[in-house]
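Example 3.2
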Amino acid sequence: MRTGRLAMSTVSLLLLLIACEQQSWESAMAAGQQAMQRGQYAEAERIFSIAVRKAEEQFGLHHRHMGVALSNEAQALAAQGQYVEAEPLYTQALKIYQDAHGEIHADVAATLNNLGVLHRMHGQFSQAEPLLNRALAIKERLHGPDHPDVALTIHNLGLLFVSQGQPEKAEPLYRRALAIREKTLSPAHPDVVKSLEELAGVLRKLHREGEAAALDARAYELRSKRS
């Protein structure tokens, strides 16, 4: 029975890939994003690679749509732990965005952020930090200091310091990210809960159990309201 389901899954994937080959960039991108939402990252990678070819055929190598397809393929690769394979795709997408928009643009900031996260996940901390700082500077210029997208990169910088065993440097970043999210998002938003829990984790590393417990209690209360 399990072998039969696997065979059916393989057939379904082949049919989907054939369908994507016959359709537009937009259709391939939509199918790839659906596969990502289902957690089917290898399938998404194959579909986004088709979207890359479609972008080249329909729009040319330097069009923004090529950057979008490359970024999504890189994301699918990173989700599978294939960081080395993902990096050149993000780098190519970044160059396309910079050529198309200049340095101060949301696409550029998002790709710098993603590259920074990729290097952190690969243990390349010295390469990650300047990328995240560049992303943060662009986002602050575009959106101002209090925006959820700014909080995302601040949080990623904090996580970088946690990964390096420097929770004392992560704490102020996590606090700033939390403050922005509490100001701009609904009280029980998942990102608010996540910030509370991760700040609590940092405080535990700093042996501040009482403060950590209070944050965990707030996070638990917010989770209860969502359920």
